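# nightly structure sweep
# worker-07 picked up a monomer target from the shared queue
# config: single-sequence mode, recycle default, output format = structure tokens
# input follows
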Amino acid sequence: MRWLKMLLILIFCFAVMLVGIMFTIHNTDKVGIDLIFLQLPEASLSLWLIAFFVIGGISGTCLSTLAILGLKTKLSLARRKTQSVSKELESYRAKAI
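# output follows
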């Protein structure tokens, strides 16, 4: 079963690499990027597209990591508060008996 999974991953990686090569071959036009305050040098269209795709993926991962860390912090605070309220409730129950 493990060899089948490895084979499927290998086939998928090969297919992605093949699509990337075909993408690069078909997009060889030189373009310059103008970012209002910054003029980037001319390079092939495929290079710019792949670069911006990677930059977008990395920045999306960083932003989602920050959001997840904030949510984990809120969760730990809520758990601590729940534990303290549970202890207080147990002390009230013990006094009532």
